[in-house]
Amino acid sequence: MEVMLLQLFNGISVSSILLLIALGLAVTFGLMNVINMAHGEMIMIGAYAAFVTQNIFRAALPGEMFDWYFALAVPVSFLVCFLFGLLLESSLIRFLYGRPLDSLLATWGVGLALQQAARSIFGAPNVAVTSPGWLNGGWTVMEGVVLPYKRLFIIALVAVVLLLMYVYIYRTAEGRRMRAVMQNRDMAACLGISTRRVDALTFAVGSGIAGIAGCALTLIGPIGPSIGTYYIVDAFMVVVLGGVGKLIGTVLGALGIGMANTLFEFWTTASLGKVLVFLAVVLFLQWKPRGIIAVRTRSLDS
Amino acid sequence: MLTVRQLETGYGGTVILRGVSLDVKPGQVVCLLGRNGVGKTTLMRGIMGVLKARKGSIRFKDEELAGRPPAVRARRGIGYVPQGREIFPLLTVYDNLLLGLEAAGGRLKTIPEEAVARFPTLPSLYGRRGGDLSGGQQQQLAFARALAPQPDLLLLDEPCEGIQPSIVEEIRAVIRDIKREGRMAILLAEQDLEFVRSVGDYFYMMDRGMIVWQGEAAELTEDVVQRHLAV
Protein backbone atom coordinates (compact mmCIF):
# COMPACT_ATOMS: atom_id res chain seq x y z
CA MET A 1 0.00 0.00 0.00
CA GLU A 2 2.68 2.48 1.07
CA VAL A 3 4.83 1.49 -1.90
CA MET A 4 1.90 1.96 -4.28
CA LEU A 5 1.13 5.42 -2.87
CA LEU A 6 4.76 6.48 -2.98
CA GLN A 7 5.19 5.30 -6.56
CA LEU A 8 2.03 7.13 -7.56
CA PHE A 9 3.26 10.30 -5.90
CA ASN A 10 6.69 9.92 -7.48
CA GLY A 11 5.07 9.48 -10.87
CA ILE A 12 3.01 12.64 -10.45
CA SER A 13 6.02 14.50 -9.13
CA VAL A 14 8.21 13.49 -12.08
CA SER A 15 5.35 14.36 -14.43
CA SER A 16 4.98 17.79 -12.88
CA ILE A 17 8.68 18.56 -13.39
CA LEU A 18 8.54 17.28 -16.97
CA LEU A 19 5.45 19.37 -17.59
CA LEU A 20 7.04 22.49 -16.18
CA ILE A 21 10.12 22.19 -18.40
CA ALA A 22 7.97 21.33 -21.44
CA LEU A 23 5.33 24.07 -21.09
CA GLY A 24 7.55 26.83 -22.42
CA LEU A 25 8.56 24.61 -25.31
CA ALA A 26 4.89 23.83 -25.96
CA VAL A 27 4.56 27.53 -26.77
CA THR A 28 7.75 28.19 -28.78
CA PHE A 29 7.82 24.81 -30.56
CA GLY A 30 4.22 23.65 -30.22
CA LEU A 31 2.44 26.85 -31.20
CA MET A 32 5.09 28.68 -33.21
CA ASN A 33 6.83 25.67 -34.83
CA VAL A 34 10.28 27.03 -33.99
CA ILE A 35 12.65 24.16 -33.20
CA ASN A 36 14.04 25.99 -30.22
CA MET A 37 17.23 24.26 -29.08
CA ALA A 38 17.98 27.20 -26.76
CA HIS A 39 14.97 26.26 -24.61
CA GLY A 40 17.24 24.41 -22.18
CA GLU A 41 19.40 27.50 -21.82
CA MET A 42 16.32 29.59 -21.01
CA ILE A 43 15.74 27.13 -18.16
CA MET A 44 19.38 27.63 -17.16
CA ILE A 45 18.98 31.42 -17.20
CA GLY A 46 15.88 31.12 -15.03
CA ALA A 47 17.79 28.96 -12.56
CA TYR A 48 20.67 31.45 -12.35
CA ALA A 49 18.17 34.29 -11.96
CA ALA A 50 16.87 32.49 -8.86
CA PHE A 51 20.48 32.02 -7.68
CA VAL A 52 21.21 35.73 -8.07
CA THR A 53 17.97 36.69 -6.30
CA GLN A 54 19.00 34.46 -3.42
CA ASN A 55 22.44 36.07 -3.22
CA ILE A 56 20.99 39.56 -3.24
CA PHE A 57 18.62 38.66 -0.41
CA ARG A 58 21.45 37.10 1.55
CA ALA A 59 23.71 40.11 1.10
CA ALA A 60 21.32 43.02 1.38
CA LEU A 61 18.44 42.01 3.61
CA PRO A 62 18.21 40.85 7.25
CA GLY A 63 18.39 37.09 7.83
CA GLU A 64 14.73 36.63 8.73
CA MET A 65 13.68 37.93 5.32
CA PHE A 66 15.76 35.28 3.54
CA ASP A 67 13.07 32.60 3.57
CA TRP A 68 10.89 34.73 1.35
CA TYR A 69 13.40 35.18 -1.47
CA PHE A 70 11.82 32.32 -3.38
CA ALA A 71 8.47 34.09 -3.64
CA LEU A 72 10.30 36.84 -5.52
CA ALA A 73 12.60 34.50 -7.45
CA VAL A 74 9.72 32.99 -9.45
CA PRO A 75 8.55 36.29 -11.03
CA VAL A 76 12.17 37.48 -11.41
CA SER A 77 13.07 34.30 -13.35
CA PHE A 78 10.02 34.76 -15.54
CA LEU A 79 10.82 38.39 -16.26
CA VAL A 80 14.51 37.84 -17.01
CA CYS A 81 13.75 35.02 -19.46
CA PHE A 82 10.84 36.96 -20.93
CA LEU A 83 13.22 39.78 -21.82
CA PHE A 84 15.83 37.34 -23.10
CA GLY A 85 13.16 35.73 -25.28
CA LEU A 86 12.10 39.13 -26.61
CA LEU A 87 15.69 39.94 -27.50
CA LEU A 88 16.31 36.54 -29.11
CA GLU A 89 13.11 36.72 -31.16
CA SER A 90 13.64 40.21 -32.47
CA SER A 91 17.33 39.75 -33.25
CA LEU A 92 17.35 36.21 -34.66
CA ILE A 93 14.25 34.00 -34.61
CA ARG A 94 12.08 36.32 -36.65
CA PHE A 95 14.34 35.91 -39.66
CA LEU A 96 14.01 32.14 -39.47
CA TYR A 97 10.26 31.48 -39.44
CA GLY A 98 9.36 28.70 -41.84
CA ARG A 99 13.00 27.51 -41.97
CA PRO A 100 13.12 24.70 -39.38
CA LEU A 101 16.64 23.48 -40.12
CA ASP A 102 18.14 26.97 -39.96
CA SER A 103 16.32 27.79 -36.73
CA LEU A 104 17.48 24.47 -35.24
CA LEU A 105 21.13 25.25 -35.97
CA ALA A 106 20.90 28.90 -34.99
CA THR A 107 19.15 28.29 -31.66
CA TRP A 108 21.60 25.48 -30.89
CA GLY A 109 24.43 27.95 -31.44
CA VAL A 110 22.71 30.49 -29.21
CA GLY A 111 22.39 27.78 -26.57
CA LEU A 112 26.13 27.04 -26.69
CA ALA A 113 26.95 30.74 -26.48
CA LEU A 114 24.65 31.17 -23.46
CA GLN A 115 26.22 28.16 -21.72
CA GLN A 116 29.66 29.63 -22.21
CA ALA A 117 28.46 33.02 -21.00
CA ALA A 118 27.14 31.38 -17.83
CA ARG A 119 30.49 29.63 -17.36
CA SER A 120 32.30 32.95 -17.69
CA ILE A 121 30.03 34.77 -15.27
CA PHE A 122 29.25 32.14 -12.62
CA GLY A 123 32.10 29.67 -13.15
CA ALA A 124 32.00 26.11 -14.47
CA PRO A 125 31.21 24.25 -11.20
CA ASN A 126 27.63 23.78 -10.11
CA VAL A 127 26.25 26.25 -7.59
CA ALA A 128 23.72 25.47 -4.89
CA VAL A 129 20.60 27.42 -4.16
CA THR A 130 19.43 27.12 -0.57
CA SER A 131 15.80 26.19 -0.42
CA PRO A 132 13.70 28.40 1.83
CA GLY A 133 13.04 26.91 5.25
CA TRP A 134 9.33 26.56 4.75
CA LEU A 135 9.91 24.08 1.94
CA ASN A 136 12.05 21.70 4.02
CA GLY A 137 10.45 18.64 5.53
CA GLY A 138 7.39 16.85 4.34
CA TRP A 139 3.77 16.00 4.88
CA THR A 140 3.33 12.66 6.67
CA VAL A 141 0.26 11.06 5.16
CA MET A 142 0.65 7.80 7.06
CA GLU A 143 3.33 5.58 8.52
CA GLY A 144 6.12 5.36 5.93
CA VAL A 145 4.54 7.77 3.45
CA VAL A 146 6.09 11.24 3.60
CA LEU A 147 5.52 13.66 0.76
CA PRO A 148 8.28 16.29 0.58
CA TYR A 149 7.00 19.88 0.60
CA LYS A 150 9.34 20.78 -2.27
CA ARG A 151 7.72 18.23 -4.55
CA LEU A 152 4.24 19.32 -3.49
CA PHE A 153 5.24 22.92 -4.11
CA ILE A 154 6.40 22.11 -7.66
CA ILE A 155 3.12 20.31 -8.37
CA ALA A 156 1.21 23.37 -7.13
CA LEU A 157 3.46 25.70 -9.14
CA VAL A 158 2.77 23.70 -12.32
CA ALA A 159 -0.95 23.87 -11.64
CA VAL A 160 -0.78 27.66 -11.21
CA VAL A 161 1.35 28.14 -14.35
CA LEU A 162 -1.04 25.94 -16.35
CA LEU A 163 -4.03 27.92 -15.10
CA LEU A 164 -2.39 31.27 -15.95
CA MET A 165 -1.44 29.99 -19.40
CA TYR A 166 -4.99 28.80 -19.98
CA VAL A 167 -6.41 32.17 -18.96
CA TYR A 168 -3.86 33.99 -21.12
CA ILE A 169 -4.41 31.90 -24.23
CA TYR A 170 -8.16 31.39 -24.03
CA ARG A 171 -9.53 34.34 -22.07
CA THR A 172 -7.56 37.46 -23.03
CA ALA A 173 -7.48 39.61 -26.17
CA GLU A 174 -3.73 38.98 -26.46
CA GLY A 175 -4.32 35.22 -26.42
CA ARG A 176 -7.08 35.52 -29.01
CA ARG A 177 -4.70 37.37 -31.32
CA MET A 178 -2.07 34.72 -30.71
CA ARG A 179 -4.41 31.86 -31.61
CA ALA A 180 -5.61 33.73 -34.69
CA VAL A 181 -2.04 34.24 -35.93
CA MET A 182 -1.11 30.60 -35.29
CA GLN A 183 -4.20 29.35 -37.15
CA ASN A 184 -4.14 31.65 -40.16
CA ARG A 185 -1.29 34.14 -40.27
CA ASP A 186 -2.30 35.91 -43.49
CA MET A 187 -5.93 36.40 -42.50
CA ALA A 188 -4.96 37.60 -39.03
CA ALA A 189 -2.77 40.23 -40.66
CA CYS A 190 -5.61 41.23 -43.01
CA LEU A 191 -7.78 41.93 -39.96
CA GLY A 192 -5.26 44.43 -38.61
CA ILE A 193 -3.29 42.25 -36.19
CA SER A 194 0.42 43.01 -36.06
CA THR A 195 1.83 39.52 -36.53
CA ARG A 196 5.34 40.78 -35.69
CA ARG A 197 4.19 41.89 -32.26
CA VAL A 198 2.26 38.68 -31.61
CA ASP A 199 5.27 36.53 -32.62
CA ALA A 200 7.64 38.46 -30.36
CA LEU A 201 5.26 38.36 -27.40
CA THR A 202 4.46 34.66 -27.82
CA PHE A 203 8.12 33.68 -27.98
CA ALA A 204 8.86 35.84 -24.95
CA VAL A 205 6.05 34.23 -22.94
CA GLY A 206 7.33 30.75 -23.85
CA SER A 207 10.83 31.75 -22.74
CA GLY A 208 9.48 33.24 -19.53
CA ILE A 209 7.74 29.99 -18.65
CA ALA A 210 11.04 28.16 -19.24
CA GLY A 211 12.50 30.61 -16.72
CA ILE A 212 9.93 29.57 -14.10
CA ALA A 213 10.91 25.95 -14.76
CA GLY A 214 14.56 26.84 -14.15
CA CYS A 215 13.61 28.54 -10.90
CA ALA A 216 11.76 25.42 -9.74
CA LEU A 217 14.70 23.17 -10.64
CA THR A 218 16.86 24.97 -8.06
CA LEU A 219 14.68 23.25 -5.43
CA ILE A 220 15.63 19.71 -6.48
CA GLY A 221 19.36 20.03 -7.00
CA PRO A 222 22.41 22.16 -7.72
CA ILE A 223 22.50 24.10 -10.96
CA GLY A 224 25.21 24.54 -13.56
CA PRO A 225 25.80 26.10 -16.98
CA SER A 226 24.81 22.89 -18.80
CA ILE A 227 21.68 22.13 -16.75
CA GLY A 228 19.53 22.83 -19.80
CA THR A 229 21.06 20.05 -21.86
CA TYR A 230 19.77 17.45 -19.35
CA TYR A 231 16.23 18.60 -19.88
CA ILE A 232 15.98 19.61 -23.54
CA VAL A 233 15.48 16.04 -24.82
CA ASP A 234 12.78 15.34 -22.25
CA ALA A 235 11.05 18.59 -23.08
CA PHE A 236 10.94 17.84 -26.80
CA MET A 237 9.81 14.28 -26.09
CA VAL A 238 6.89 15.52 -23.98
CA VAL A 239 5.73 18.07 -26.56
CA VAL A 240 6.05 15.69 -29.52
CA LEU A 241 4.34 12.83 -27.66
CA GLY A 242 1.54 15.12 -26.49
CA GLY A 243 0.86 16.48 -29.94
CA VAL A 244 1.94 19.83 -31.27
CA GLY A 245 -0.38 22.77 -30.76
CA LYS A 246 -2.56 21.99 -27.73
CA LEU A 247 -1.87 22.52 -24.03
CA ILE A 248 -3.84 19.46 -22.93
CA GLY A 249 -1.65 17.28 -25.16
CA THR A 250 1.46 18.51 -23.37
CA VAL A 251 -0.17 17.73 -20.01
CA LEU A 252 -1.02 14.19 -21.12
CA GLY A 253 2.43 13.72 -22.66
CA ALA A 254 4.13 14.73 -19.39
CA LEU A 255 1.84 12.48 -17.34
CA GLY A 256 2.45 9.55 -19.70
CA ILE A 257 6.22 9.85 -19.69
CA GLY A 258 6.45 10.69 -15.98
CA MET A 259 4.29 7.77 -14.89
CA ALA A 260 5.90 5.31 -17.30
CA ASN A 261 9.34 6.43 -16.17
CA THR A 262 8.54 5.85 -12.49
CA LEU A 263 6.89 2.49 -13.07
CA PHE A 264 9.58 1.10 -15.40
CA GLU A 265 12.31 2.27 -13.06
CA PHE A 266 10.51 0.60 -10.16
CA TRP A 267 10.11 -2.69 -12.03
CA THR A 268 13.58 -2.73 -13.60
CA THR A 269 16.59 -0.46 -13.03
CA ALA A 270 17.04 3.28 -13.55
CA SER A 271 18.85 3.04 -16.87
CA LEU A 272 16.78 0.18 -18.28
CA GLY A 273 13.64 2.10 -17.26
CA LYS A 274 14.74 5.09 -19.33
CA VAL A 275 15.38 2.86 -22.34
CA LEU A 276 11.94 1.25 -22.00
CA VAL A 277 10.25 4.67 -21.82
CA PHE A 278 12.10 5.79 -24.90
CA LEU A 279 11.07 2.60 -26.73
CA ALA A 280 7.46 3.09 -25.67
CA VAL A 281 7.46 6.67 -26.97
CA VAL A 282 8.99 5.62 -30.29
CA LEU A 283 6.41 2.83 -30.69
CA PHE A 284 3.55 5.17 -29.80
CA LEU A 285 4.69 7.72 -32.38
CA GLN A 286 4.92 4.97 -35.00
CA TRP A 287 1.29 4.23 -34.27
CA LYS A 288 0.16 7.87 -33.91
CA PRO A 289 2.71 10.18 -35.56
CA ARG A 290 0.79 13.32 -34.55
CA GLY A 291 0.92 12.53 -30.85
CA ILE A 292 -1.81 12.02 -28.28
CA ILE A 293 -3.86 15.09 -29.19
CA ALA A 294 -3.79 15.83 -32.92
CA VAL A 295 -5.01 19.23 -34.01
CA ARG A 296 -6.13 19.35 -37.60
CA THR A 297 -6.09 22.79 -39.09
CA ARG A 298 -5.14 24.04 -42.47
CA SER A 299 -2.38 26.18 -41.03
CA LEU A 300 -0.71 23.16 -39.43
CA ASP A 301 -1.25 20.91 -42.43
CA SER A 302 0.41 23.20 -44.90
CA MET B 1 -10.53 56.90 -52.64
CA LEU B 2 -8.63 53.82 -53.86
CA THR B 3 -6.29 54.39 -56.76
CA VAL B 4 -4.26 51.48 -58.10
CA ARG B 5 -1.66 52.31 -60.74
CA GLN B 6 0.41 49.88 -62.82
CA LEU B 7 0.37 47.22 -60.08
CA GLU B 8 2.60 44.22 -60.67
CA THR B 9 2.57 41.27 -58.33
CA GLY B 10 2.56 37.47 -58.28
CA TYR B 11 3.61 34.34 -56.42
CA GLY B 12 7.31 33.58 -56.00
CA GLY B 13 8.97 34.08 -59.37
CA THR B 14 5.73 34.10 -61.35
CA VAL B 15 4.26 37.46 -62.25
CA ILE B 16 0.45 37.26 -62.38
CA LEU B 17 -0.63 40.91 -62.48
CA ARG B 18 1.05 42.84 -65.26
CA GLY B 19 0.35 46.51 -64.71
CA VAL B 20 -3.20 46.80 -63.37
CA SER B 21 -4.79 50.22 -62.81
CA LEU B 22 -8.21 50.84 -61.33
CA ASP B 23 -10.13 53.37 -59.24
CA VAL B 24 -12.80 53.07 -56.58
CA LYS B 25 -14.63 56.25 -55.60
CA PRO B 26 -16.33 56.77 -52.21
CA GLY B 27 -19.64 54.95 -51.93
CA GLN B 28 -19.18 53.22 -55.27
CA VAL B 29 -19.66 49.50 -55.97
CA VAL B 30 -16.96 48.52 -58.44
CA CYS B 31 -17.07 45.04 -59.95
CA LEU B 32 -14.18 42.99 -61.21
CA LEU B 33 -15.10 40.46 -63.88
CA GLY B 34 -13.15 37.79 -65.68
CA ARG B 35 -12.80 34.06 -66.20
CA ASN B 36 -11.15 31.74 -63.71
CA GLY B 37 -7.44 32.32 -63.28
CA VAL B 38 -7.15 35.77 -64.87
CA GLY B 39 -5.88 37.35 -61.65
CA LYS B 40 -8.94 38.68 -59.80
CA THR B 41 -7.98 37.09 -56.50
CA THR B 42 -4.34 38.04 -57.01
CA LEU B 43 -5.42 41.66 -57.44
CA MET B 44 -7.48 41.51 -54.23
CA ARG B 45 -4.55 40.01 -52.35
CA GLY B 46 -2.26 42.62 -53.84
CA ILE B 47 -4.51 45.47 -52.71
CA MET B 48 -4.80 43.95 -49.23
CA GLY B 49 -1.04 43.42 -49.05
CA VAL B 50 -0.94 39.63 -48.66
CA LEU B 51 1.09 39.69 -51.88
CA LYS B 52 3.83 42.28 -52.04
CA ALA B 53 3.75 44.73 -54.93
CA ARG B 54 6.77 44.50 -57.23
CA LYS B 55 5.94 47.67 -59.06
CA GLY B 56 3.20 50.24 -59.09
CA SER B 57 1.29 52.17 -56.51
CA ILE B 58 -1.73 51.61 -54.28
CA ARG B 59 -3.06 54.88 -52.91
CA PHE B 60 -5.87 54.83 -50.36
CA LYS B 61 -7.30 58.03 -48.87
CA ASP B 62 -4.25 59.95 -50.13
CA GLU B 63 -1.72 57.61 -48.56
CA GLU B 64 0.66 55.32 -50.41
CA LEU B 65 0.13 51.77 -49.12
CA ALA B 66 2.19 49.72 -51.58
CA GLY B 67 5.03 49.05 -49.14
CA ARG B 68 2.93 48.68 -45.99
CA PRO B 69 1.97 45.34 -44.38
CA PRO B 70 -1.64 44.08 -44.49
CA ALA B 71 -2.31 45.01 -40.86
CA VAL B 72 -1.65 48.69 -41.61
CA ARG B 73 -3.96 48.61 -44.62
CA ALA B 74 -6.71 47.04 -42.49
CA ARG B 75 -6.25 49.74 -39.87
CA ARG B 76 -6.49 52.47 -42.50
CA GLY B 77 -9.99 51.19 -43.30
CA ILE B 78 -9.86 48.35 -45.82
CA GLY B 79 -12.07 45.37 -44.94
CA TYR B 80 -11.53 42.03 -46.65
CA VAL B 81 -13.81 39.05 -47.26
CA PRO B 82 -11.42 36.63 -48.96
CA GLN B 83 -12.19 33.80 -51.31
CA GLY B 84 -12.72 30.69 -49.23
CA ARG B 85 -13.79 32.96 -46.33
CA GLU B 86 -10.75 32.15 -44.14
CA ILE B 87 -12.63 31.81 -40.88
CA PHE B 88 -10.39 30.82 -37.93
CA PRO B 89 -11.53 27.21 -37.61
CA LEU B 90 -10.70 26.56 -33.94
CA LEU B 91 -11.97 29.89 -32.62
CA THR B 92 -15.58 30.49 -31.69
CA VAL B 93 -17.83 32.56 -33.92
CA TYR B 94 -17.79 35.29 -31.28
CA ASP B 95 -13.98 35.31 -31.11
CA ASN B 96 -13.85 35.50 -34.90
CA LEU B 97 -16.08 38.58 -34.74
CA LEU B 98 -14.04 40.18 -31.98
CA LEU B 99 -10.92 39.74 -34.12
CA GLY B 100 -12.70 41.83 -36.73
CA LEU B 101 -12.45 44.75 -34.29
CA GLU B 102 -8.63 44.65 -34.35
CA ALA B 103 -8.62 46.94 -37.38
CA ALA B 104 -10.48 49.57 -35.35
CA GLY B 105 -7.37 49.82 -33.15
CA GLY B 106 -9.15 50.09 -29.80
CA ARG B 107 -11.72 52.58 -31.12
CA LEU B 108 -14.45 49.95 -30.71
CA LYS B 109 -14.84 47.76 -27.65
CA THR B 110 -17.93 45.83 -28.68
CA ILE B 111 -19.18 44.59 -32.03
CA PRO B 112 -21.36 47.31 -33.61
CA GLU B 113 -25.04 46.35 -33.84
CA GLU B 114 -25.24 47.08 -37.53
CA ALA B 115 -22.47 44.63 -38.44
CA VAL B 116 -24.44 41.74 -36.98
CA ALA B 117 -27.98 43.05 -37.55
CA ARG B 118 -27.64 42.28 -41.25
CA PHE B 119 -27.18 38.59 -40.41
CA PRO B 120 -29.84 37.79 -37.79
CA THR B 121 -28.88 34.11 -37.49
CA LEU B 122 -25.31 34.82 -36.38
CA PRO B 123 -25.89 35.54 -32.66
CA SER B 124 -27.38 32.07 -32.16
CA LEU B 125 -24.06 30.59 -33.38
CA TYR B 126 -21.74 32.63 -31.12
CA GLY B 127 -20.53 29.66 -29.07
CA ARG B 128 -19.84 27.33 -32.02
CA ARG B 129 -16.39 26.89 -33.52
CA GLY B 130 -15.85 28.66 -36.83
CA GLY B 131 -14.70 25.47 -38.53
CA ASP B 132 -17.98 23.71 -37.67
CA LEU B 133 -20.19 26.17 -39.57
CA SER B 134 -21.61 25.50 -43.03
CA GLY B 135 -20.20 27.39 -46.01
CA GLY B 136 -23.08 29.85 -46.01
CA GLN B 137 -22.82 30.51 -42.29
CA GLN B 138 -19.07 31.05 -42.66
CA GLN B 139 -19.72 33.55 -45.42
CA GLN B 140 -22.13 35.48 -43.19
CA LEU B 141 -19.53 35.43 -40.43
CA ALA B 142 -16.78 36.61 -42.79
CA PHE B 143 -19.02 39.50 -43.86
CA ALA B 144 -19.89 40.48 -40.31
CA ARG B 145 -16.23 40.21 -39.29
CA ALA B 146 -15.18 42.54 -42.12
CA LEU B 147 -17.99 45.01 -41.34
CA ALA B 148 -17.31 45.08 -37.57
CA PRO B 149 -14.53 47.74 -37.65
CA GLN B 150 -16.67 49.94 -39.95
CA PRO B 151 -14.25 50.06 -42.90
CA ASP B 152 -14.38 52.65 -45.68
CA LEU B 153 -13.67 50.13 -48.42
CA LEU B 154 -14.77 46.52 -48.53
CA LEU B 155 -12.98 43.97 -50.74
CA LEU B 156 -15.28 41.06 -51.60
CA ASP B 157 -13.68 38.12 -53.38
CA GLU B 158 -16.30 35.85 -54.97
CA PRO B 159 -18.75 36.09 -52.06
CA CYS B 160 -21.36 33.95 -53.85
CA GLU B 161 -19.10 31.06 -54.81
CA GLY B 162 -20.54 27.76 -53.59
CA ILE B 163 -23.18 29.42 -51.41
CA GLN B 164 -26.83 28.37 -51.20
CA PRO B 165 -29.27 30.71 -53.06
CA SER B 166 -30.98 32.09 -49.96
CA ILE B 167 -27.68 33.41 -48.60
CA VAL B 168 -26.73 34.78 -52.01
CA GLU B 169 -29.94 36.83 -51.82
CA GLU B 170 -29.02 37.96 -48.31
CA ILE B 171 -25.58 39.07 -49.52
CA ARG B 172 -27.19 40.93 -52.42
CA ALA B 173 -29.46 42.74 -49.96
CA VAL B 174 -26.51 43.61 -47.72
CA ILE B 175 -24.51 45.07 -50.62
CA ARG B 176 -27.52 47.13 -51.71
CA ASP B 177 -28.00 48.37 -48.14
CA ILE B 178 -24.37 49.45 -47.92
CA LYS B 179 -24.67 51.14 -51.28
CA ARG B 180 -27.80 53.03 -50.24
CA GLU B 181 -26.17 54.26 -47.03
CA GLY B 182 -23.21 55.41 -49.13
CA ARG B 183 -20.61 55.33 -46.34
CA MET B 184 -18.66 52.39 -47.65
CA ALA B 185 -17.20 51.64 -51.07
CA ILE B 186 -17.04 48.08 -52.37
CA LEU B 187 -14.68 46.32 -54.76
CA LEU B 188 -16.38 43.08 -55.77
CA ALA B 189 -14.76 40.23 -57.70
CA GLU B 190 -17.46 37.93 -59.02
CA GLN B 191 -18.19 35.69 -61.98
CA ASP B 192 -21.98 35.73 -61.73
CA LEU B 193 -22.97 38.32 -64.33
CA GLU B 194 -26.57 38.60 -63.18
CA PHE B 195 -25.39 39.29 -59.62
CA VAL B 196 -22.87 42.01 -60.50
CA ARG B 197 -25.30 43.74 -62.86
CA SER B 198 -27.82 43.99 -60.01
CA VAL B 199 -25.40 45.76 -57.62
CA GLY B 200 -22.53 47.30 -59.61
CA ASP B 201 -21.88 50.95 -60.55
CA TYR B 202 -18.74 50.46 -62.59
CA PHE B 203 -17.11 47.40 -64.14
CA TYR B 204 -13.61 46.23 -64.93
CA MET B 205 -12.94 43.19 -67.08
CA MET B 206 -9.70 41.27 -66.52
CA ASP B 207 -7.85 38.86 -68.75
CA ARG B 208 -4.38 37.36 -68.30
CA GLY B 209 -3.37 39.70 -65.51
CA MET B 210 -4.49 42.92 -67.18
CA ILE B 211 -7.56 45.15 -67.32
CA VAL B 212 -8.91 44.65 -70.84
CA TRP B 213 -12.17 46.58 -70.65
CA GLN B 214 -13.93 49.03 -68.33
CA GLY B 215 -17.25 50.80 -68.37
CA GLU B 216 -20.65 51.40 -66.80
CA ALA B 217 -23.59 49.02 -66.62
CA ALA B 218 -25.10 50.26 -69.89
CA GLU B 219 -21.85 49.64 -71.72
CA LEU B 220 -21.59 46.07 -70.50
CA THR B 221 -23.22 44.72 -73.64
CA GLU B 222 -23.69 41.16 -74.80
CA ASP B 223 -20.82 41.69 -77.19
CA VAL B 224 -18.39 42.63 -74.40
CA VAL B 225 -19.51 39.68 -72.33
CA GLN B 226 -19.09 37.29 -75.26
CA ARG B 227 -15.60 38.56 -75.95
CA HIS B 228 -14.22 38.41 -72.40
CA LEU B 229 -16.32 36.02 -70.36
CA ALA B 230 -17.57 33.28 -72.68
CA VAL B 231 -15.67 30.05 -72.24
Summarize the structure.
Chain A is mostly helical and 302 residues long. Chain A is 73% helix and 3% strand.
In what range is the share of β-strand residues of chain B? Answer: 25-35%
Largest sheet of chain A: 2 strands, antiparallel
Helix content of chain A: over 70%
Chain pair with largest interface: A-B, 20 and 26 residues
Distance between the termini of chain A: 51 Å
Spatial extent as radius of gyration of chain A? 20 Å
What are the secondary-structure elements of chain B, in order, as H or E?
Answer: EEEHEEHEHHHEHEHEEH
Oligomer: heterodimer
- Unreliable residue runs of chain A: 297-302
- State the strand order across the main sheet of chain A: 1-2
The CATH architecture classification of chain A is: Orthogonal Bundle
Task: Indicate the mean pLDDT of chain A.
Answer: 92
CA distance, first residue to last residue of chain B = 34 Å
Task: Count every helix of chain A, treating DSSP H or I runs of 4 or more residues as helices.
Answer: 12
Largest sheet of chain B: 6 strands, mixed
Organism (chain A): Thermobacillus xylanilyticus
Transmembrane segments (chain A): 12-35, 42-62, 68-88, 152-169, 201-223, 235-260, 266-287
Protein name (chain A): Urea ABC transporter, permease protein UrtB
Keywords (chain A): Amino-acid transport, Cell membrane, Membrane, Transmembrane, Transmembrane helix, Transport
